[in-house]
């Protein structure tokens, strides 16, 4: 079943399907990490139904954004959302394998991705193919993902992604091996005293060594309510407007 929701009152509307991977907090958190600039060319690898692209455009309307995904059903919904929000000139989608040279090399200023977190055979296996593709690396390994991002970026372009803290060593090693230098790292914690549950990382194509670890992103206050930053990420602190 398809579901439509608005990012905020008067904001862009996104769509998802119960048969595909449902939108999660990690996508919203990732959208807050890139340093967006007007007229940036952005590519979303494994874009699903296009939620991350809409979030980025909600934050910075003057972007040219391209999403690519293997699943025709997801791309169909992504294109439907682009049409629903009158974004045909700024948001386009390609049904294809990000490991193939489908998109031109060195053609984006920023690449973003909410990737599968787990190696094949690790943890519980999802019964449906769309969920397996989103959760495990059976369709695209971490190395293949980083190579794809590096191919699409020019020198000094940036790659931002969300991942699990237990994969940090693998992630940094693979990024560097592919010519992407980790530059900004931010851990995501449920509360101020809890261990990280996610990480946000920004890597630069051909960047010099030197990693900045930023203050953690705290999801909840001590009373269990969302933190002010999470409210801002979900657009709860902004007035209604029209995109």
Quick gist of this model?
With 243 residues, the protein is of the alpha/beta class. It has helices spanning 25-31, 51-59, 72-84, 129-135, 142-152, 168-177, 228-233, and strands spanning 2-6, 13-17, 40-45, 63-69, 91-95, 110-113, 158-163, 180-189, 196-205, 212-213, 217-218.
The multimeric state of the shown protein is: single chain
Order of helices and strands: EEHEHEHEEHHEHEEEEH
Number of helices: 7
Q: Give the CA-CA distance, first to last residue.
A: 26 Å
Query: What is the CA-based Rg, rounded?
Result: 17 Å
Strands, total number: 11
Q: How would the global form be characterised?
A: globular
Which class of secondary structure composition applies to the elements?
alpha/beta
User: Roughly how much helix do the residues carry, as a percent range?
Assistant: 25-40%
Reported for the largest beta sheet, the result is: 9 strands, mixed
Spans of at least 5 consecutive residues whose pLDDT stays below 50 are none
Estimate the strand proportion. 25-35%
Mean pLDDT: 93
């Amino acid at each position: 079943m398809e579901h439509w929701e608005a990012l905020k009152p008067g904001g862009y509307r996104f769509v998802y399907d119960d048969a595909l991977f449902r939108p999660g907090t990690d996508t919203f958190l990732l959208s807050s990490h890139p340093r967006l600039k007007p007229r940036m060319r952005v590519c979303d690898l494994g874009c699903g139904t296009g939620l991350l692209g809409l979030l980025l455009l909600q934050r910075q309307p003057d972007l040219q954004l391209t999403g690519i995904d293997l699943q025709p059903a997801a791309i169909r919904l992504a294109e439907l959302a682009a049409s629903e929000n009158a974004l045909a000139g700024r948001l386009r989608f390609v049904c294809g394998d990000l490991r193939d040279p489908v998109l031109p090399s060195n053609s984006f200023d920023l690449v973003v991705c909410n990737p599968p977190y787990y190696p094949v055979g690790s943890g519980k296996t999802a019964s449906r193919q769309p969920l397996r593709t989103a959760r495990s690396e059976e369709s695209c390994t971490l190395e293949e993902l980083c190579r794809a991002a590096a191919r699409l970026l020019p020198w000094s372009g940036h790659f931002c992604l969300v991942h699990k803290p237990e994969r940090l060593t693998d992630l940094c090693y693979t990024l560097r091996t592919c010519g992407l230098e980790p530059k900004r790292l931010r851990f995501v914690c449920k509360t101020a005293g809890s261990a990280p549950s996610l990480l946000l990382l920004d890597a630069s194509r051909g960047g010099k060594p030197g990693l900045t670890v930023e203050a953690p992103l705290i999801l909840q206050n001590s009373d269990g309510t969302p933190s002010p930053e999470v409210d801002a990420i979900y657009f709860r602190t902004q007035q209604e407007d029209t995109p």
